[in-house]
Amino acid sequence: MLSLPPSNEAESYDGVPLVRMPDSAEDLERLLEVLYNQPMLRLKRFDPNTPHVVKPLLTLANKYDIQHLRKNIVHTLEEDWRQTLSEWDELEHYAEGKAKTCYRDLDQYREPEEFPDLHLPEAASAIRLARHCNIPSILPAAFYHLSRITIENDWDKTHVTHTNDHIPEYTELVAGARTARWDLVTREDFVCLFLGKERMKTMVDYWGKGGNSAPSHPHPGTNKPECDYKNWLKIWGVVERKCQQSSDVLKTLSDVDDILTSAEKPTMCYTCDEAVTTGLDDLRNKIWDNLRNYFALPA
Predict the structure, then answer these.
(1) Helices 270-289 & 187-208 angle (0-180, nearest 10)
(2) Are 169 and 53 contained in the same domain?
């Protein structure tokens, strides 16, 4: 842009060509600061404010084709919004650990320093950024996470000065309840959100009724009590019911012991028991792999 030869109509200032840049001075200053003083942009891991911090930089990186800066930012966002189910599970364990630490402080009559939610990615701002700056890779995980959060848990209304004397949400926040900046969610993304939630539940229902790729009974036609087909159907009926009632299907399916206990688990042979566990794992992977389709997201 700066090296293009000037035309006869080009503006000049003090005898040199003038290039007008419509971007805000604050954003340009931040961009130049990163390029000259911080060539490797350092961003805090899992910071819920990362989308807000990087949006001006990413917008300018796209506009002026600064590829190394864009790649750096996108890489950080993809680490916050996991790309595989195993990575997602690791992040969930990290979140649970944060919640246990805060809850332990509360249990010992100490004021927790911060809520776990302040150390974990925030979905609504991430989705808004991904739409604005074309980062489709983070959308599936961000939409799934947002689908787990009740609209009553609004970031701006919740993260104010709390005391456990009169704020009912206080204990929930300490225990790991997540919030979202719901005011950033567009009408179109609300449609995608509700569509995805319905499609996930439909998928589980279809799977439980023996749909495509559903697990089949390991011992068809057997008369052994421990391999009774009715017991097999009973367990998958519990899976379907629990998922229909859950706002976090992936977490529900990961708790095999809870599912089997709720089914008043009959005596099962080792092969049947393993088939249930494998089936639940396969269903989790299938749901994760199809999040983009469920929420009608771009590739």
Answers:
(1) 160
(2) yes
